[in-house]
Amino acid sequence: MFVRTFIAGLVLLSSLPALPAHAMAPRVEPTPRSAQSGVYKIPIDRNVSLEEAAESMRLRANALNLKLVSELPLSKQVEAVTGQPQRVITIFQFCDAVTAKELIDMNMDFAIYMPCRIALIEAADGQGWLVMSDIDVDMVAAEKRLQPRLTTRIKAVREGLIEIMQAGAKGAL
Fold it and tell me: Could you please report the per-residue DSSP string of the chain?
């Protein structure tokens, strides 16, 4: 399951242009982690509305050339079916199409990880959270024998997803 989630993140990274290692931004170190292995989550600042967080994520993804390919307002769908108000749950899906295609060309099993997802969730106490799968890129790259060039692009996608989450959590445009 962990490897599958990691690959989904890689697909999102695939839409990024290939850059030489020296031109890439410094690695973003994901310090916030869930008690559950393979999960990365950060709280949304209390002074940032969930709508502002979502808009910040959309804008940052666009700036990073990670395409927002789907936005699933899950809580609104549940509310429509049940007629009961729901806490916000929205699933954002991002993709780097070129990287995704290269991964699938290498091994079609990578398709199950695509596209990369970030969930925006309102907890019962009203606190907003951003949650995604946290993949060990080096482990997956070794297991699947990825080319170094593709491994670098996957790492860039993962770092882009973390940057998107950080922008959303702070309401940064």
Answer: -HHHHHHHHHHHHTTSPP--GGGSPPPPP-----SSTTEEEEEPPTTS-HHHHHHHHHHHHHHTT-EEEEEE-HHHHHHHHH-S----EEEEEEE-HHHHHHHHHH-GGGGGG-SEEEEEEE-TTS-EEEEEE---HHHHHHHHT--HHHHHHHHHHHHHHHHHHHHHHHT--
Tens digit of each residue's pLDDT (9 = 90 or more) over 110-133: 887 788 899 999 999 999 999 999
pTM above 0.85, yes or no: no
Contacts of 26 by beta carbon, 8 Å cutoff, 6+ apart:
none
Asked if residue 24 lies in contact with residue 131, where contact means CB atoms within 8 angstroms, the answer is no
**Amino acid identity, position 31:** T
**Residues shown for the chain:** 173
